[in-house]
Each structure stands twice: as C-alpha cells, then as structure tokens.
Specification:
This protein is mostly helical. It contains 24 helices and two strands. Among the domains are: 92 residues, no CATH class; 83 residues. A two-stranded antiparallel ribbon has the order 1-2. One of its GO terms (molecular function) is glycosyltransferase activity.
C-alpha cells in the first residue's frame, strides 16, 4: 500500500509542478458563475458551486481548487484501503483495488479541472462506504451515508439513482426502520431543501431544467423523422441534415447554434417539450435506442472506443496535455477580473514535464475489460451459493459495483458516451471487485473437503508383568508325639472289637 500511496502522491505532485493553473472546460465557467451569483444553475445542480464559493473572488487563482481536489482523492485512496482491510480483504488485493484511483491518468487529469466529477466521486464513494463500514449498520453510519449521498445527488443528478440503490441495500440488509429513517431524514432535508430553494428562484420544483434537452440530444442520432408519427410542432425539432460527426457528439444538438433546439426552443421553459419529443422517439423506436445504448456501453467495456474527429478530440481533453492550450488539449483557467468572465486564452508554451505526463497518459488508463470483469465477479459472488456465510460481503460488492456501473450506463442512456462520465466506475468497480473476490474465495474454501487424518492406533490396556513365584520353603517339621506307654502283656493278646471288624471279610465289599 505504501508503494501505491507513494505513486499517487508523486503523480499529483508532478501535475502541480507541470501545470501551475487549474484546467478549464466550457462547463467550468457556469459552475464558477453560480458560485459568484449564489443562485442555482439551471443546467446542473448547485452542489459543486457551493464548494467553490470560498475560492471565488476577483482575480481568483483556482489552482487552489485543483490542489484541494488532488488532496481529496488521496484521502479517498487511504479511506478505500482502510475500508477493504476492515472488511477482511487481503492487503495485496486491497492495495491493487485502489490503484486505478491512485494512478489512472484520466482520474488525475479530471482532478485538475474545475469540474464536479472529483467532488461527486468522493461524496459517493464515502457515502457508500459509510453504509457498509460496520457489520451492523448503526444510526450514525446511516445518517452520515444519507448526508454524503444526498450531497452527491445535488452535485450531479446521476447521484439520484444511487440513492435509490442505497435504500434497496438497506432493505436487503434488514437494518431496521430506525436506521432506515436515520438515512432518509438527511436525504429528505437536503433534497427537499434544494427543491424549495430552486422553486423560490425559478418557480419550478426541479434540480435543473435541462434534463429534457439532454435526452433530446441523446435520441437525435436515431430519430428517423420520415418514419416517426410526430405532431407538426415536434417535426420542427427534426434535423435530417445534421453533420455526420454529431452522431458521436450528440451534445452538439444542445449547444450548437444551428440545432433546432437551440434556435427555436432556447428557453428553460421549453425543456418539457424537448423531453416529450425524446420520449416519443424512444417509444416508437425502442430497438434502435437500445442498440445505440448497448453499443456505447460496450465502448466503455472495450480496450478502446472507435472515436474519431471531434469525439476523439473530446476524449483527449481528459488526458494530461503535453502543451496546454493546443488543439484538443486542456487549457488553463487563468484568473479573470470578474469571476463571471470567460478566462483568457491559454498561450501554448514548451512544457517538458507535461510531455512526460502526456506519454504516461497514453498508457496509464483503466482498461475497459476490467469493468466487465468487475461486474461479472460481483454477480458470481452474489449468486454462487448465496446461503453460505459471508453473503453480506456479496451485498456490499453489488452495492459498489452497481453504483459504479450504473452511473456509467445512465450517463450513456441519458446524455452521451464520454470518458469523463465514467470516472465513478474507476473507483467503485475495483473496490466492489475486491470484495467479490474475497467472498468467492471464502465460499471456495468452505466447500473444499478437509484432508483425511489417519486414526490413532488403538491403545490396549497394559498387562502387568508376571512376577516369579516365590520359592517354596520346606514346611517346618512337626514336633514328634510323645511315646505312649506300652500296654500290659495280658491285654495285648486278646483281640478287641475293633480289630475283629477290621479283619472281617464283609468289610472289603
């Protein structure tokens, strides 16, 4: 683990040395503008702008934001390793699971951008780990998880389905109504408070007013208006002569001035109409929609996506630039007088350390097949002998992998294919895969028969050794009887009665 942590710190120190300013993307300025204005942004939620607020002032140097985001990622590396170690994952496997978060070039590059991705990942992963930290979910852990996950949801709306997944997890874990309430209370307060605040500003209860526009752009590559049954007003949204590269860059249907949505329906109030058009297309062409979504999800799971032109240029923005400011490379968010202004253009300059980091980024990205392996491992861990001990580990693996893969699928289904939106999977799927491997190994060990041990030899009771009999001693001589006095001669000549019986013949029979 110390090697992984050392590599993570070294890589981020090189970033700070090579790129003295934070990176800029067109989405960055609205986040900063919302922080300066103090009002909710209609395109994306306000959560990230709230975190930017302390850094915003005239001529603000936003490199401090990039530094903060790098430090937050390092803290998440340590927390992720500690979480896996607490859950019984072997140290080498726990260290391997945090390698993508520590060393993935896209992950570290996005930490240097003024974008919400790093904040969303930190809040989501921390919230899920808070729920799965203890054997029995406590009220404090449930409440903390609710605060973190709700904060993630008001940072990026893709976090709302993660909240639903967390509720399902708590029900499966049978945490009890009190702990479920402890989780839902802060969720309700944060989300409800945000909706009320947004309504006070824009007179609509919503987290934003671009969801319909994003979904419109998502379905336009498959919208065959000649075959669709549309109302006359809906047909004004068709664009049969759209540039070919918009197929892989559907976001152009939102931002380009030649898009019908941009030119005819530019207001936030038009968002429901655009969303209704998108739903009509999906309902009439479900097969085409599912094929498009399945194909682009497959790109995330493949070693590389078949991107070219503008789509490849967008993908290259999420890798370390050899020379910031050149085409298809990240540029700097340079200080501007009012924070609402677009920052000055970055002037490319030689950057030897940046060139080294660019070469690193050519190889050091998490391969797509690794995500597929993580999903399979989580499913095997959950479905293989679920009644065996340790199924709680499988539930935690499904929670983490489901959140990571789910955000990836939802971004493709509702927006577009973009490596930027796959960043949560870089952290969540490896953590879940480590838990899945641990559970599979535990089940395999429980099924393995114990080696037969030979029975000990039967112990017979010991027979005492025979002792030699003692030698016979001659019996002591009896004392001789005293001699009787001799009878008179006259008596000895006359036989007695006894002597007569002794010599009688009958006595022999």
């Amino acid at each position: 683990m110390w090697i992984v942590l050392g590599g993570a710190l070294t890589l981020r120190a090189m970033f700070l040395a090579a790129y003295p300013h934070a990176f800029f993307f067109p989405d960055s300025r609205p986040y900063v503008a919302a922080a300066a204005d103090g009002i909710p942004y209609t395109v994306r939620p306000y959560g990230y702008s709230l975190l930017l607020k302390p850094f915003i002032h005239p001529f603000a140097e936003l490199a401090s934001v990039a530094l903060t985001q790098h430090l937050a990622a390092v803290a998440l590396i340590v927390a992720g390793y500690a979480f896996l170690a607490r859950r019984g994952v072997r140290p080498w496997l726990a260290a391997l699971a945090v390698v993508p978060l520590a060393l993935d070039a896209r992950q570290v590059t996005l930490e240097h951008y003024i974008l919400a991705e790093t904040t969303f990942v930190v809040l989501t992963v921390a919230g899920l780990m808070a729920l799965a930290w203890r054997e029995r979910i406590g009220a404090v852990g449930a409440a903390l998880g609710g605060v973190l996950l709700a904060s993630a949801a008001v940072t990026r709306t893709v976090g709302l389905p993660v909240l639903a997944l967390a509720v399902l997890y708590l029900l499966v874990r049978r945490c009890g109504w009190a702990r479920l309430g402890a989780f839902l209370l802060p969720v309700g307060l944060i989300l409800g408070g945000y909706l009320v605040w947004y309504h006070q500003t824009w007179q609509v209860y919503a987290f934003g007013q671009y969801q319909g526009r994003f979904l419109y752009a998502r379905v336009m590559p498959i919208a065959d208006c000649d075959r669709l049954q549309l109302t006359p007003q809906q047909r004004t949204l068709c664009m049969p002569d759209a540039p070919a590269f918009w197929t892989h860059r559907p976001d152009m249907y939102i931002w380009s001035s030649i898009s019908p949505a941009r030119s005819h329906y530019p207001l936030e109030a038009d968002d429901p109409f655009l969303g209704e058009f998108a739903k009509t297309v999906i309902s009439q062409e479900p097969g085409a929609y599912l094929r498009m979504i399945g194909t682009e999800i497959g790109w995330h799971l493949a070693p590389g996506a078949p991107l070219d032109g503008s789509a490849r240029c967008l993908a290259d923005l999420w890798l370390p630039p050899g020379k910031p400011g050149v085409s298809c490379s990240a540029g700097y968010y340079l200080p501007a007088a009012p924070p609402l202004w677009i920052p000055p253009t970055t002037v490319p300059a030689p950057n030897p350390l940046g060139e080294k980091l660019q070469r690193y980024g050519d190889y050091a990205t998490t391969p797509g097949p690794f995500y597929a392996v993580g999903v399979v491992l989580a499913l095997v861990a959950a479905l293989w002998r679920p009644r065996r001990a340790g199924w709680r580990t499988a539930a935690d693996a499904l929670l983490l992998v489901g959140a990571g893969f789910g955000t990836l699928v939802l971004s493709v289904a509702t927006s577009m294919f973009d490596y930027r939106y796959a960043v949560p999977a870089v952290t969540l799927i490896p953590l879940g895969a480590a838990l899945a491997v641990t559970r599979i190994a535990a089940v395999a060990r429980s099924r393995r028969p114990e080696p037969a041990t030979p029975a000990p030899p039967l112990a017979l009771p010991s027979v005492p050794a025979l002792q030699p009999a003692p030698a016979l001693q001659p019996a002591p001589a009896l004392p001789s009887a005293p001699a009787l006095p001799s009878a008179p001669a006259s008596l000895s000549r006359q036989p007695t009665a006894a002597s007569k019986i002794a010599i009688s013949p009958e006595s022999s029979h």
